[in-house]
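Hi D.,

Good news: the full-assembly prediction came through. Inputs first.
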Amino acid sequence: MKHIKTIETRNLCESAKKGGCGECQTSCQSACKTSCGIANQQCEKTAEQSK
Amino acid sequence: MIHQYKLGGYNIVLDICSGSVHAVDDVAYDIIALYESQSREDIIAAMAEKYEGVDGITKADIEECYEQVTALKDMGRLFTPDTFEPMADTLKKKTAGVVKALCLHIAHTCNLNCSYCFASQGKYHGERGLMSYEVGKQALDFLVANSGTRHNLEVDFFGGEPLMNFDVVKQLVAYARSIEKEKGKNFRFTLTTNGVLIDDDVIDFANKEMSNVVLSLDGRKEVHDRFRVDYAGNGSYDNIVPKFQKLVAARGGKNYYMRGTFTHHNPDFLEDIKQMLDLGFNELSMEPVVCAAGDPSELTEADKIIVLDQYEKLAELMINRDKEGKPFTFYHYMIDLKGGPCVYKRISGCGSGTEYMAVTPWGDLYPCHQFVGDDKYLLGNVFDGVKNTAIQDEFLKCNVYSRKECQDCWAKLYCSGGCAANAYHATGSVNGVYEYGCDLFRKRMECAIMVAVDRELR
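Then the structure:
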């Protein structure tokens, strides 16, 4: 019996080893301008790879 | 750190530090809740008692479930310890001395007179003014000169109303395009507009040159026209909606946002989202108002209860529209679980005052558009660069681990400490915490992740 379904996600611990190119969008630059979060930002590298 | 919640018929478990998301059954949900505080034997006994005779759940099922939880822990997908704090300063300092985004206040004036405007009708509590080409050009040169090895540079034409200075916008875009190849840069432009001056020329230009356009519309006509009026007091809804529709129809799939503000007068903002959908828009953003304490528009604690419920209903609407083949996006629910930001971004936050600055029509630099007009936060100008390094250092120290209130918050790696301007206005410190905003943010994240789970498992 499968009790747990794990959704595919980016591994943050792994990203600590390779992350930080800084090419991603500045959080407030797109839509909100008043209540920033970063969860809805895209990683420029993964976006590039998925093209 | 673990966060568990039930929403939309799902039991969801987040492992904060690995970024893992799990959809679990009731037994697993209960085991995970007890896993770190009780022994294996005690947990299995408690579960056996709770689920005796329920849906044929046997003790063997419970033991199997316990082993699945343990396996995920061993794989670094549950109960992952927080090892990021020691690297927070180092990661944040990667942003030091590199500017990659500017908010160009191309016009400190506006053709609307919205009383809830955080920018005081575009004037930012100062003089009216338009940015000259010379100042704008210097701002772009400042950006290029300070962008280090960054390839992608972002420039937002902001105001006030930027289309009141449209010729300069066009000249600056032409200048940027003329230097980007030689400088090895890629400019991404955004235009934020109230729509009043949109015409065919603006539409052609915006759809050719702007990576994104942000179009201000508050939803229902009566809601929009309560605040978004001209200087004679006439509502702008009937004037701008057809223009927005024409611009979006011509956009050819490029990004845009219909961006609304909700206030104390419309905490039931889902009705405004529905109105935007009815008008044919499907890339949407609705933001809680930013205003001074005591302002009549300020959201109250009673409003918060309504707003949190609206966020849940918005998630339901999104799922239902998915099923009907009529999907739409909501800015705060656009969570990319596979390709989202790395931990560097999650720790460092928005980059205000370091990677990101606002430029006034006269070339003065501020940490972001929300600090413009506050003399204490004047950083320097685009001609002489940043001189007020003490203030910049305050922003350089802003990261999710610099706010003690964030340490035990499950959402810290989704918000990265939140908005410095909101924190400043709520607490007097950019390193403070705007708790009302935190409550809304956490609910938005729960909803966003639930929608993502539903899309994955449906």
